[in-house]
Each structure stands twice: as structure tokens, then as C-alpha cells.
UniProtKB/TrEMBL annotation:
GO terms for cellular component: Pwp2p-containing subcomplex of 90S preribosome; small-subunit processome. It comes from the Eukaryota. Pfam families: WD40. Keywords: Nucleus, Repeat, rRNA processing, WD repeat. Residues 12-29 have a biased composition (Basic and acidic residues). SMART domains: WD40. The keyword Zinc-finger does not apply. Residues 1-34, 97-116 are annotated as: Disordered. It comes from Cephus cinctus (Wheat stem sawfly). This is U3 small nucleolar RNA-associated protein 18 homolog. InterPro entries: Utp18 (IPR045161), WD40/YVTN_repeat-like_dom_sf (IPR015943), WD40_repeat_dom_sf (IPR036322), WD40_rpt (IPR001680). Belongs to the WD repeat UTP18 family.
């Protein structure tokens, strides 16, 4: 019996060991299966190729459908006008038929004019009436409020008492006036402007001081960048969203300004002709290009795409600095030894030559093109009469030893003069023309190097000035408050040394060129798109 029990115990122990081993094998298989699954998932997620997020494709049909839902269909204007015309014609026909049917005893027929008078005499009805108001008499209303009717009151209804009391305290509001003057509603142009496809003209708010809403966009010449290390000219077209960029490499490029891509429209190379200044004519049909090294200029016709080389007069040596009159008739050029040459804009022939006592460094036409202001080394500003070809006034620039820049606001009321000492004086034009030593309205001392360029924006609200002798030497002033905008340029803004600056015709953009081959484009969000 002892041996049999031992045998049974051993058999049971063997069964238990086999069962435990089978369970361990099963658990290990499950663990390996789970680990392999996790490993495959990990490899698929983290070691496999990254899947790019799907971008929404542009669908012009969907965009057009959404535009019709939001803004309406442009064809609705014509259909609405046609429907209104048909309804008016049908009303006139009905009026005529009624006139023929409604004859008086004397046989006279009602005219259309009498019908119109009757329509205008119809009194408008009240839009909403509360039937419960008729149930409350004056005594009932006063009894509910526990008060008595004041002496001298003649109202018989409680609603009448409330209406009269409201008019005495507040008055009759405009929305409660039933008989309104509908002259503006009868205007066809007003009906068209009220359509969803047309927007009313929004009044532009005045520019506030302190900070200006400005943003740097893509450079104007980012697509090319071959105008030279020194980009000397940047200007916006007077009629189209186009800008020119030119530099000392002799390359002039024309770009379509949109703030995103600024695609190049055309580019031309003037051999051995470093461009110091390039300007659009007033009508925008031509570009005049001048250089410091040659006694001739180039004229590029934007319509025909041809370039004409025109020699200058024998007394002229270059066209490094010149200005085109606002009426487009004349070109004023800074010459040698204080000479100022007046050329015909069409033929480039010499019309007249003036002479300053010192070298002439800057020129500016008045908005009416009748006068020309010049500034130079003597610290005096000269005023030249274009018609009489003579100097009519001389004024001393306050604290200036040598003038370097001058600009006149588009309104003609202000004049800004910059000096080599880094001072900008802001004058009233009338005061400057009347006094020999005028007192500036504002003396700006934000820069300490020579002022190289000055520019007013077209609305005469901003004065921008810069110096090419120092990095980021650029400022903008709010003219109404005569304070500097503090948020541009910032410490992170890298303009380098600004050489030229220009505002777009609508003040929406500001172009700044520098000595690194860039033509920056800034968006002034306070103004329109261009």
C-alpha cells in the first residue's frame, strides 16, 4: 500500500508539473503575440514613411457657388431692374384702365396725375395694434397704478395718456414718424447701391498717433534681385498696381505688386549705365532713367516697349538727381556749381537754367507745378517761378549748414527740409514764402546722420525720412500730432541702410530700398489695397 500511494503521488505531481508547464507555454505565446503586434504598430507609425496631411484642393466651382450665396448673383441686378420696370409698366396700364372706367358725370376722364396725387395722399397705417389696449380705460389704468389723473389733462384713454407722456419726456423718435420723405428711396442709383453686389462708400478714418498698423510683405524684387547691391530707385505706378526697381548694376525691373508673389513683368539691362534714378512720368506711359556717369538719359516707352537714348544739353554732364513736375511738362535736374536745369519732359530739350550761390542737392515741385523749391549747401531754400523763370523768394533753413533733402506735401501746405546734420524741419508753406527766416512748425531730431530722402504719403498724414549713412536709420512721423510712430522699425527689423523710399498712390504700400539689393514692401493696413 505504501508503494501504491507513492506511485499515485508521483503521478499527480507529474500531472501538475505538466499542467503548469503548459500554462507557462501558453502565457509566453500570448506575450510574444502581443509584443509582435505592438512592434508592428510601432514600426508602422514611427518608422514608416510620414504621410503628408491632405491639403484642400482649390475648387473654382465651389468658390463661385459660395460667392453667389454670400454676395448674390451679379445678374440679379439686371433681373431686378427688369422686374421693377415690368411692374411699373403694369401699374401704369392698370391706372390707365381704371381712368377710362371711372368717368365723371361731365364726361371727363381721370388723368394719371390725379391718380398719383391720390396715391400720395393716402395715410400710412399703423404697423401693429394691441387689441388689449382698448379694454383698459383711463380710470382702469390709473386705478391699477394707484394714482390720479393730473389736473389739466384732457386724455380719455389710458394709451393716449401714455403716448403723450412719452412724447413730452423723450419726443417723437425718427422710427415712429409715419410720413417720411422718400426722395432718396426713389433714386434708381440708390436702389442699385443697396443691392448685395454693391458696397456703399466707407469714410476713411483719421490716422491715429502712437503706433501704426504696418506689416512687412514679400520683397518687391525677390524674384530677380539682380538690380545691384545698391538699389537706388523704387517707385509705384500712378495708375496701375505696378512698381519699378532699379540699381547701380544698370538693371531696371518692373513688377506686379500684390504683396505675395510680386511677379516680374519685364526687366531690361542698360549696358555700362549705372542707374541713379528712375521715375515714371505723370501719365505712367514712360520711364525716365538717369545716371551720374553719362551725359544722356534713357526713356522707356511702356506701351511700345522701346527704349530711346536722348543726349543732354552741352552744359549738362549727368542726370543723377532729377524731379518730374506733377503736370508732366518739365524735368528739373541738379547740375554743377549750383545750376538747376529745366528740361522739356517730351523732347528733353533745355528750357532754362537757374543758378544758386551754392551746390544744389535737392529739388521739389509744388503740387500745381507753378513753383520749384531747391535746397543746397548754403543752408538756404530757393523758390523758383516756372512761368517767369526767376527766383521769387529765399528762406533760411533754421539751424541748417548744408541741406540734403526737401519734400512738399501733396496738399501743398507743408514743406520738409532735411540737412546733413540729421535734422528735419517741418514748415508751413505760406509762412516760408512770406518770411526770410521762417520758424519751423516742428524740429525733428530722431536721426543723427545726413538725411538722404524725405517723402509725404498722398494723404499728407505721414512724413517718412531716412539716412543712408546708418543701419535702420528710418522713421515715420504722424503729421497731425507731430509725433514719431514708435512701433516701426523695431529691433528685429533689418532695413540696413535705406537709399530710397516711396508711397503708393493710395498709401496702402510703402517701398524702401537699401544697400543690400533689397526693395522692401510694407503694407499700411489703415489705407486701401494700393
Amino acid at each position: 500500500m505504501g508503494d501504491a500511494q507513492e506511485i499515485n503521488i508521483k503521478q499527480n505531481m507529474d500531472k501538475d508539473t505538466r499542467k503548469e508547464s503548459s500554462e507557462d507555454d501558453h502565457n509566453s505565446e500570448i506575450k510574444t503575440l502581443i509584443s509582435t503586434r505592438n512592434k508592428t504598430k510601432y514600426n508602422a507609425v514611427f518608422q514608416g514613411p510620414l504621410q503628408k496631411k491632405r491639403k484642400n484642393e482649390y475648387n473654382p466651382e465651389e468658390e463661385a457657388r459660395l460667392e453667389r450665396l454670400v454676395f448674390g448673383d451679379a445678374n440679379d441686378i439686371i433681373s431686378n431692374l427688369l422686374d421693377e420696370k415690368e411692374s411699373k409698366d403694369s401699374q401704369n396700364i392698370l391706372l390707365k384702365n381704371d381712368a377710362f372706367e371711372d368717368e365723371s358725370d361731365n364726361g371727363s376722364i381721370l388723368s394719371e396725375e390725379s391718380g398719383d396725387d391720390e396715391c400720395t395722399d393716402v395715410k400710412k397705417e399703423v404697423a401693429w395694434i394691441d387689441e388689449d389696449d382698448e379694454q383698459y380705460s383711463l380710470d382702469t389704468g390709473l386705478r391699477a397704478q394707484k394714482r390720479k389723473l393730473p389736473e389739466g389733462r384732457s386724455e380719455t384713454k389710458f394709451t393716449e395718456l401714455l403716448q403723450n407722456k412719452y412724447k413730452e419726456i423723450v419726443g417723437t423718435p425718427k422710427w415712429a414718424q409715419l410720413n417720411k420723405d422718400n426722395e432718396t428711396n426713389s433714386d434708381d442709383s440708390a436702389d442699385i447701391l443697396n443691392h448685395t453686389n454693391h458696397l456703399a462708400v466707407v469714410k476713411v478714418k483719421k490716422l491715429t498717433k502712437g503706433k501704426i498698423d504696418i506689416k512687412l510683405l514679400t520683397d518687391i524684387n525677390k524674384e530677380t534681385g539682380n538690380e545691384g547691391p545698391l538699389v537706388t530707385s523704387v517707385q509705384f505706378h500712378p495708375n496701375s498696381t505696378v512698381a519699378l526697381v532699379a540699381g547701380l548694376s544698370g538693371v531696371l525691373s518692373i513688377f506686379q505688386v500684390d504683396g505675395c508673389e510680386n511677379k516680374k513683368l519685364h526687366s531690361m539691362k542698360f549696358s555700362k549705365f549705372p542707374i541713379d534714378r528712375a521715375r515714371f512720368t505723370q501719365d505712367g506711359s514712360e520711364i525716365i532713367v538717369g545716371s551720374r556717369r553719362h551725359a544722356f538719359c534713357h526713356t522707356y516707352d511702356l506701351i511700345t516697349g522701346t527704349t530711346i537714348r536722348t543726349p543732354l544739353a552741352h552744359t549738362m554732364t549727368n542726370m543723377k538727381k532729377f524731379e518730374i513736375s506733377p503736370d508732366g511738362k518739365f524735368i528739373a535736374v541738379c547740375g554743377r556749381m549750383g545750376q538747376i536745369h529745366l528740361l522739356s519732359s517730351r523732347s528733353k530739350e533745355l528750357v532754362h537754367t537757374w543758378k544758386m550761390n551754392e551746390n544744389c542737392n535737392a529739388l521739389a515741385f509744388t503740387p500745381d507745378s507753378r513753383q520749384l523749391f531747391s535746397h543746397g549747401d548754403g543752408g538756404e531754400m530757393y523758390v523758383w517761378d516756372i512761368d517767369r523763370r526767376m527766383c521769387i523768394h529765399r528762406a533760411v533753413d533754421d539751424g541748417c549748414l548744408s541741406g540734403s533733402a526737401i519734400a512738399i506735401s501733396p496738399s501743398g501746405q507743408l514743406l520738409a527740409a532735411g540737412s546733413r546734420q540729421g535734422v528735419v524741419n517741418l514748415y508751413d508753406t505760406k509762412t516760408l514764402l512770406q518770411k526770410k527766416v521762417p520758424v519751423p512748425m516742428k524740429i525733428i531730431l530722431n536721426l543723427d546722420t545726413s538725411i538722404s530722402c524725405l517723402a509725404f504719403n498722398p494723404t499728407s498724414e505721414i512724413l517718412a525720412f531716412a539716412s543712408e549713412d546708418k543701419e535702420n536709420a528710418f522713421k515715420m512721423m504722424h503729421i497731425q500730432s507731430t509725433t514719431i510712430f514708435s512701433n516701426f522699425p523695431t529691433f528685429n527689423t533689418k532695413i540696413s541702410k535705406p537709399l530710397a523710399l516711396e508711397f503708393s498712390p493710395g498709401s496702402g504700400y510703402l517701398g524702401i530700398s537699401n544697400n543690400r539689393g533689397n526693395a522692401f514692401l510694407c503694407r499700411l493696413k489703415h489705407y486701401g489695397n494700393y
